[in-house]
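User: Could you check the structure of this?
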Amino acid sequence: MPVEEKVSLFGPPMRVLLVRAAPFEGGGALVTIDDLSERARLDAVRTDFVSNISHELKTPVGALALLAETLADSDDLEVNRRLANKMVDE
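Assistant: Sure, the predicted structure tokens are below.
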């Protein structure tokens, strides 16, 4: 019966290994070790990038939503023009 285990080795540099072992009938075993360190590093970079981009996009979108709400509630043409210009600047 084959066995598979992911092993993380901490310390510089961090290593992530996938160890697989399968016994042979009659004795012995086959063991393979795959180094997944680069894949794990890229996954972490991608996760950080998406998190940062999400945060950066939420700020102007929130400001635009607030300006649009104020614009919709205002009947003053000058206020509407000023808010519309701020929306364009965002």
